[in-house]
Amino acid sequence: MFDALTDRLGKVFDGLTGRGALSEKDVNEALREIRVALLEADVALPVVKKFIDDVRPLAIGENVIKSIKPGQLVIKIVHDALVETLGGDEEQPPLKIDSPPAVIMMAGLQGSGKTTTTGKLAKRLKDVERKKVLVASLDVRRPAAMEQLRILAQQVGVDALPIVEGQLPPDIARRAIQAAKFGGYDVIILDTAGRTTLDDQMMNEAAQIAEIANPQETLLVADALTGQDAVETAKRFNERLPLTGLVLTRMDGDGRGGAALSMRAVTGLPIRFIGMGEKVDGL
User: Fold this and answer.
1) What are phi and psi of 129, to 5 degrees?
2) Please, what CATH class does the domain formed by 3-85 belong to?
3) CATH numeric code, 102-274
4) pLDDT tens, position by position, 48-70
Protein backbone atom coordinates (compact mmCIF):
# COMPACT_ATOMS: atom_id res chain seq x y z
CA MET A 1 0.00 0.00 0.00
CA PHE A 2 3.04 2.30 0.26
CA ASP A 3 4.53 1.38 -3.14
CA ALA A 4 4.72 4.88 -4.61
CA LEU A 5 5.95 6.42 -1.35
CA THR A 6 8.56 3.67 -0.91
CA ASP A 7 9.90 4.26 -4.43
CA ARG A 8 10.11 8.00 -3.94
CA LEU A 9 11.78 7.78 -0.52
CA GLY A 10 14.14 5.12 -1.88
CA LYS A 11 15.49 7.65 -4.41
CA VAL A 12 15.94 10.28 -1.68
CA PHE A 13 17.78 7.76 0.52
CA ASP A 14 20.01 6.63 -2.37
CA GLY A 15 21.09 10.25 -2.75
CA LEU A 16 22.00 10.41 0.94
CA THR A 17 23.97 7.17 1.12
CA GLY A 18 25.81 7.98 -2.09
CA ARG A 19 27.72 10.76 -0.34
CA GLY A 20 30.37 10.75 2.34
CA ALA A 21 29.96 13.78 4.56
CA LEU A 22 26.61 15.56 4.82
CA SER A 23 26.14 19.26 5.41
CA GLU A 24 23.08 20.83 7.02
CA LYS A 25 22.14 22.07 3.54
CA ASP A 26 22.22 18.47 2.19
CA VAL A 27 19.93 17.25 4.97
CA ASN A 28 17.49 20.15 4.48
CA GLU A 29 17.37 19.40 0.75
CA ALA A 30 16.60 15.73 1.50
CA LEU A 31 13.87 16.75 3.98
CA ARG A 32 12.31 18.98 1.31
CA GLU A 33 12.16 16.00 -1.05
CA ILE A 34 10.68 13.81 1.72
CA ARG A 35 8.05 16.50 2.37
CA VAL A 36 7.05 16.51 -1.33
CA ALA A 37 7.00 12.69 -1.38
CA LEU A 38 4.65 12.58 1.62
CA LEU A 39 2.32 15.22 0.15
CA GLU A 40 2.22 13.38 -3.18
CA ALA A 41 1.31 10.21 -1.25
CA ASP A 42 -1.78 12.14 -0.03
CA VAL A 43 -0.57 12.53 3.56
CA ALA A 44 -2.42 15.46 5.20
CA LEU A 45 -0.45 18.73 5.28
CA PRO A 46 -0.54 19.19 9.11
CA VAL A 47 0.75 15.61 9.50
CA VAL A 48 3.58 16.24 7.02
CA LYS A 49 4.50 19.52 8.72
CA LYS A 50 4.67 17.91 12.18
CA PHE A 51 6.64 14.96 10.79
CA ILE A 52 9.28 17.21 9.20
CA ASP A 53 9.42 19.46 12.29
CA ASP A 54 10.03 16.38 14.47
CA VAL A 55 12.67 14.88 12.17
CA ARG A 56 14.64 18.02 11.27
CA PRO A 57 16.37 18.70 14.66
CA LEU A 58 17.37 15.03 14.92
CA ALA A 59 18.58 14.82 11.30
CA ILE A 60 20.77 17.94 11.46
CA GLY A 61 22.07 17.27 14.96
CA GLU A 62 25.79 17.12 15.72
CA ASN A 63 25.73 13.30 16.00
CA VAL A 64 24.58 12.99 12.39
CA ILE A 65 26.87 15.58 10.79
CA LYS A 66 29.95 14.16 12.53
CA SER A 67 29.12 10.45 12.17
CA ILE A 68 31.08 8.12 9.86
CA LYS A 69 27.94 7.22 7.88
CA PRO A 70 25.66 10.27 8.21
CA GLY A 71 23.40 9.17 5.33
CA GLN A 72 22.54 5.89 7.07
CA LEU A 73 21.80 7.73 10.30
CA VAL A 74 19.40 10.17 8.60
CA ILE A 75 17.62 7.22 6.94
CA LYS A 76 17.24 5.52 10.33
CA ILE A 77 15.84 8.72 11.89
CA VAL A 78 13.25 9.09 9.06
CA HIS A 79 12.36 5.38 9.18
CA ASP A 80 11.86 5.44 12.96
CA ALA A 81 9.69 8.55 12.69
CA LEU A 82 7.51 6.91 9.99
CA VAL A 83 7.09 3.79 12.16
CA GLU A 84 6.16 5.99 15.12
CA THR A 85 3.58 7.87 12.99
CA LEU A 86 1.96 4.52 12.15
CA GLY A 87 1.81 3.52 15.80
CA GLY A 88 5.24 2.21 16.67
CA ASP A 89 6.69 -1.30 16.70
CA GLU A 90 4.59 -2.62 19.57
CA GLU A 91 2.05 -5.28 18.73
CA GLN A 92 -1.57 -4.17 18.64
CA PRO A 93 -3.66 -5.55 21.50
CA PRO A 94 -6.37 -7.99 20.39
CA LEU A 95 -9.99 -6.91 19.98
CA LYS A 96 -11.86 -6.75 23.29
CA ILE A 97 -14.24 -9.63 22.65
CA ASP A 98 -13.76 -11.78 25.75
CA SER A 99 -16.96 -10.80 27.60
CA PRO A 100 -19.88 -12.30 25.69
CA PRO A 101 -21.82 -10.97 24.04
CA ALA A 102 -19.10 -8.45 23.07
CA VAL A 103 -20.50 -5.62 20.94
CA ILE A 104 -18.55 -4.34 17.95
CA MET A 105 -20.01 -1.22 16.34
CA MET A 106 -19.10 -0.40 12.73
CA ALA A 107 -19.26 3.26 11.70
CA GLY A 108 -18.45 5.11 8.49
CA LEU A 109 -19.78 6.91 5.44
CA GLN A 110 -21.95 5.25 2.83
CA GLY A 111 -19.78 3.62 0.18
CA SER A 112 -16.81 3.12 2.52
CA GLY A 113 -17.25 -0.66 2.42
CA LYS A 114 -18.72 -0.88 5.92
CA THR A 115 -21.24 -3.65 5.26
CA THR A 116 -18.74 -5.76 3.29
CA THR A 117 -16.20 -5.23 6.09
CA THR A 118 -18.80 -6.36 8.65
CA GLY A 119 -19.14 -9.63 6.72
CA LYS A 120 -15.36 -10.03 6.45
CA LEU A 121 -14.86 -9.36 10.16
CA ALA A 122 -17.61 -11.83 11.08
CA LYS A 123 -15.88 -14.51 9.00
CA ARG A 124 -12.51 -13.74 10.58
CA LEU A 125 -13.92 -13.93 14.12
CA LYS A 126 -15.69 -17.20 13.33
CA ASP A 127 -12.78 -18.90 11.54
CA VAL A 128 -9.73 -17.51 13.34
CA GLU A 129 -11.05 -16.66 16.83
CA ARG A 130 -13.62 -19.50 16.85
CA LYS A 131 -16.38 -17.16 18.01
CA LYS A 132 -20.13 -17.53 17.59
CA VAL A 133 -21.08 -14.32 15.75
CA LEU A 134 -24.36 -12.49 15.15
CA VAL A 135 -24.52 -9.56 12.71
CA ALA A 136 -27.25 -6.89 12.61
CA SER A 137 -27.90 -4.14 10.07
CA LEU A 138 -29.13 -0.83 11.51
CA ASP A 139 -29.27 0.87 8.10
CA VAL A 140 -33.01 1.46 7.72
CA ARG A 141 -32.54 4.17 5.07
CA ARG A 142 -31.01 1.75 2.61
CA PRO A 143 -33.06 -1.47 2.69
CA ALA A 144 -30.61 -3.02 0.23
CA ALA A 145 -27.93 -2.77 2.95
CA MET A 146 -29.97 -5.00 5.28
CA GLU A 147 -30.44 -7.58 2.54
CA GLN A 148 -26.75 -7.31 1.58
CA LEU A 149 -25.66 -8.09 5.14
CA ARG A 150 -28.12 -11.01 5.35
CA ILE A 151 -26.61 -12.51 2.16
CA LEU A 152 -23.04 -11.88 3.37
CA ALA A 153 -23.83 -13.57 6.70
CA GLN A 154 -25.13 -16.59 4.80
CA GLN A 155 -21.97 -16.68 2.67
CA VAL A 156 -19.57 -16.59 5.64
CA GLY A 157 -21.62 -18.93 7.81
CA VAL A 158 -22.79 -16.63 10.62
CA ASP A 159 -26.27 -15.61 11.76
CA ALA A 160 -27.96 -12.34 10.84
CA LEU A 161 -30.62 -10.68 12.98
CA PRO A 162 -34.01 -11.13 11.26
CA ILE A 163 -35.22 -7.95 9.54
CA VAL A 164 -38.33 -6.33 11.07
CA GLU A 165 -39.93 -3.77 8.77
CA GLY A 166 -40.39 -0.28 10.20
CA GLN A 167 -38.15 -0.72 13.24
CA LEU A 168 -35.88 2.21 14.10
CA PRO A 169 -32.08 1.79 14.53
CA PRO A 170 -32.05 2.22 18.35
CA ASP A 171 -34.76 -0.46 18.67
CA ILE A 172 -32.87 -2.77 16.31
CA ALA A 173 -29.74 -2.31 18.46
CA ARG A 174 -31.67 -3.25 21.63
CA ARG A 175 -33.24 -6.27 19.91
CA ALA A 176 -29.84 -7.38 18.56
CA ILE A 177 -28.23 -7.28 22.00
CA GLN A 178 -31.14 -9.24 23.53
CA ALA A 179 -30.92 -11.82 20.72
CA ALA A 180 -27.16 -12.13 21.28
CA LYS A 181 -27.68 -12.73 25.01
CA PHE A 182 -30.45 -15.28 24.60
CA GLY A 183 -28.74 -17.01 21.67
CA GLY A 184 -25.43 -17.51 23.47
CA TYR A 185 -23.40 -15.48 20.96
CA ASP A 186 -19.82 -14.46 21.71
CA VAL A 187 -19.88 -11.38 19.48
CA ILE A 188 -22.56 -9.12 17.99
CA ILE A 189 -21.50 -6.80 15.15
CA LEU A 190 -23.73 -3.75 14.59
CA ASP A 191 -23.54 -2.35 11.05
CA THR A 192 -24.73 1.24 11.49
CA ALA A 193 -26.20 3.47 8.78
CA GLY A 194 -23.87 5.41 6.52
CA ARG A 195 -24.51 8.72 4.74
CA THR A 196 -23.00 10.21 1.61
CA THR A 197 -21.84 13.16 3.73
CA LEU A 198 -21.16 13.84 7.39
CA ASP A 199 -24.16 15.46 9.06
CA ASP A 200 -25.46 16.06 12.57
CA GLN A 201 -28.40 13.68 12.18
CA MET A 202 -26.08 10.81 11.28
CA MET A 203 -23.70 11.61 14.14
CA ASN A 204 -26.53 11.93 16.66
CA GLU A 205 -27.96 8.57 15.62
CA ALA A 206 -24.54 6.88 15.82
CA ALA A 207 -23.89 8.44 19.24
CA GLN A 208 -27.32 7.26 20.46
CA ILE A 209 -26.63 3.71 19.31
CA ALA A 210 -23.21 3.77 21.02
CA GLU A 211 -24.94 4.84 24.24
CA ILE A 212 -27.49 2.02 23.99
CA ALA A 213 -25.08 -0.72 22.91
CA ASN A 214 -22.05 0.33 25.01
CA PRO A 215 -19.72 -1.35 22.46
CA GLN A 216 -16.41 -2.88 23.52
CA GLU A 217 -15.04 -1.91 20.11
CA THR A 218 -16.14 0.90 17.79
CA LEU A 219 -14.39 0.65 14.43
CA LEU A 220 -14.41 3.40 11.83
CA VAL A 221 -14.41 2.05 8.29
CA ALA A 222 -12.95 4.45 5.73
CA ASP A 223 -12.14 4.21 2.03
CA ALA A 224 -8.39 4.73 1.60
CA LEU A 225 -8.93 6.07 -1.93
CA THR A 226 -10.78 9.13 -0.61
CA GLY A 227 -7.48 10.47 0.74
CA GLN A 228 -7.88 13.78 2.55
CA ASP A 229 -11.66 13.26 2.88
CA ALA A 230 -10.96 10.07 4.84
CA VAL A 231 -8.85 12.09 7.28
CA GLU A 232 -11.63 14.64 7.84
CA THR A 233 -14.13 11.79 8.28
CA ALA A 234 -11.92 10.16 10.91
CA LYS A 235 -11.51 13.44 12.76
CA ARG A 236 -15.26 14.14 12.89
CA PHE A 237 -16.24 10.63 13.93
CA ASN A 238 -13.52 10.56 16.58
CA GLU A 239 -14.97 13.74 18.13
CA ARG A 240 -18.43 12.16 18.54
CA LEU A 241 -17.94 8.42 19.01
CA PRO A 242 -15.83 6.29 21.38
CA LEU A 243 -13.72 4.98 18.46
CA THR A 244 -11.24 2.23 19.30
CA GLY A 245 -9.72 1.55 15.88
CA LEU A 246 -9.68 2.13 12.14
CA VAL A 247 -10.37 -0.17 9.20
CA LEU A 248 -9.08 1.04 5.83
CA THR A 249 -10.79 -0.44 2.78
CA ARG A 250 -9.68 -0.62 -0.86
CA MET A 251 -6.03 -0.55 0.16
CA ASP A 252 -5.27 -2.80 -2.83
CA GLY A 253 -6.22 0.15 -5.06
CA ASP A 254 -4.10 2.72 -3.23
CA GLY A 255 -0.35 2.58 -3.80
CA ARG A 256 0.20 5.84 -1.95
CA GLY A 257 -0.80 4.99 1.63
CA GLY A 258 -1.25 8.61 2.67
CA ALA A 259 -4.67 8.03 4.22
CA ALA A 260 -3.23 5.38 6.54
CA LEU A 261 -0.43 7.64 7.76
CA SER A 262 -2.73 10.65 8.12
CA MET A 263 -5.63 8.95 9.89
CA ARG A 264 -3.35 7.21 12.35
CA ALA A 265 -1.55 10.48 13.13
CA VAL A 266 -4.71 12.63 13.34
CA THR A 267 -6.77 10.29 15.56
CA GLY A 268 -4.06 8.40 17.44
CA LEU A 269 -6.12 5.25 16.82
CA PRO A 270 -4.62 1.94 15.72
CA ILE A 271 -5.28 0.63 12.20
CA ARG A 272 -7.00 -2.61 13.18
CA PHE A 273 -7.60 -4.07 9.75
CA ILE A 274 -6.93 -3.39 6.09
CA GLY A 275 -9.52 -4.39 3.49
CA MET A 276 -8.31 -5.81 0.18
CA GLY A 277 -10.79 -6.51 -2.62
CA GLU A 278 -14.38 -7.73 -2.43
CA LYS A 279 -13.74 -11.33 -1.36
CA VAL A 280 -14.99 -12.22 2.11
CA ASP A 281 -11.53 -13.31 3.28
CA GLY A 282 -9.86 -10.08 2.14
CA LEU A 283 -9.31 -8.54 5.59
Assistant:
1) -90, -5
2) mainly alpha
3) 3.40.50.300
4) 888 888 888 887 766 655 665 66
